[in-house]
Design brief:
alpha/beta; 2 domains; about 40% helix; Spore Coat Polysaccharide Biosynthesis Protein SpsA, Chain A; eight-stranded mixed beta sheet; about 290 residues; two-stranded antiparallel sheet
Length: about 290
């Protein structure tokens, strides 16, 4: 299958220097692209000078994750898109089992590999770990972590199972399905747009799967730090947007009402921790 590995970049020269070599080395099956969100550093010059086989797509502005990929993928001809964060280290043969699954399972539209922590390689990484799910109030979670606690990889999730959502840190999708769904929702800018896309794919009858034979290592938080109030705002706002878009109408009011109460409690917790900017970020979500 024709596969394109697409790395979205914004002022990420250091990340490209550190992580692009593994992708080039271990992706002989793929064409590799750097999709640049109008960087002002020397990212493009670095790629051109050191990785001449890597193709470059220039976006006109910093469109964020969602629209950034939507714009870049318009210029790529491939059956499979592998959307890979710039802080991902891949391993040998990481594409083989993914390609085999797509070839053998026509209804499988989206796949996530096993995502381990680059800094502690025997542990799962927060963003996706061993496959994502969602609870009845729309809060996402995944196998391999409980809140902030990450599990050690002992082979407990060495399966290939159906999941609810795949992590955007390393996200494989059939281009035909991506185009059918009109890509990511650009209103999300960043965070949880991959969950929304997976939910829409599931609503169309497609499958989302986790593949443990494909292993990658993720730094996490390299582009927008965990303690950034903007990240808090995007996570809370986008989670509500996702529910408004995808929940059946009969479930919408009770779930949204409960979520607003729970999000308010989270805001109070931030206030008690002295994180007033994070409280304000949650309050801003009320202006949806």
């Amino acid at each position: 299958m024709k596969i394109a590995v697409v790395i979205l970049n914004w002022n990420g020269t250091k990340l490209l220097e550190q992580f692009l070599p593994s992708i080039v080395q271990f992706s002989p099956e793929a064409t590799i692209y750097v999709a640049d969100n109008a960087s002002t550093d020397d990212s493009i010059a670095f790629v051109k000078a050191n990785f001449p086989t890597v193709q470059i797509i220039r976006n006109e502005s910093n469109f964020g994750f969602a629209r950034g990929y939507n714009e870049a993928l318009k210029h790529i001809d491939a059956e499979i898109y592998a959307l890979v964060n710039s802080d991902i280290e891949v391993t040998e043969n990481w594409l083989q089992s993914i390609i085999e699954t797509f070839e053998n399972e026509p209804q499988t539209a989206i796949i996530q590999p096993k995502i381990l922590d680059y800094k502690r390689k025997e542990y799962f990484e927060y963003a996706g770990a061993a496959g994502g799910f969602i609870d009845k109030y729309g809060y996402p979670y995944c196998r391999g972590r409980i809140f902030e606690t990450l599990e050690k990889d002992k082979g407990q999730y060495d399966d290939n199972c159906e999941i609810f959502w795949a992590s955007g840190a390393c996200f494989f999708i059939r281009s035909s399905v991506y185009n059918e769904l009109e890509g990511f929702d650009a209103d999300f800018f960043a965070h949880q747009e991959e969950i929304d896309l997976c939910w829409r794919a599931l609503n169309k009858g497609y499958k989302v799967k986790y593949n443990s034979q494909s292993v990658v290592y993720h730094v996490g938080g390299a582009t927008l730090q965990l303690g950034n109030p903007k990240k808090t705002f995007l996570n809370f706002r986008n989670s509500l947007l996702m529910l408004l878009k995808n929940l059946p109408k009969k479930q919408l009011f009770p779930v949204i009402f409960t979520r607003l109460i729970l999000d308010g409690i989270a805001g109070i917790q931030f206030l008690l921790q002295g994180k007033s900017k994070h409280l304000l970020a949650i309050v801003k979500t009320c202006h949806l």
